[in-house]
Amino acid sequence: MTQKNNDDILIGNKPPMSYVLALITAFSGDQKKVTLKARGQAITTAVDVTEITRHRFIKDLKVTKIMINTVEMPPREGENRSRMVSAIEITLTRDTHT
User: What is the pTM of this model?
Assistant: First the structure.
């Protein structure tokens, strides 16, 4: 898990609960908005993290924006063409009235 800035969590190959913990930690401070970013196979993990956190840990968490796109990735070693990879950004906000 790499954090770009305070409100971005980049989803990778770790188990979903690692990212759930990062999300809970972000919202336990004064953070009001966090964006989960994932590409390719990690999109499934990003959706799982969102749902686990919303249903088990932070009930007042709302999905305020979902952005999908395709990112051109450079060729891997041994390949001669770049490849297109799906990407998603899920923006979550916490209702601070409760």
Answer: 0.88
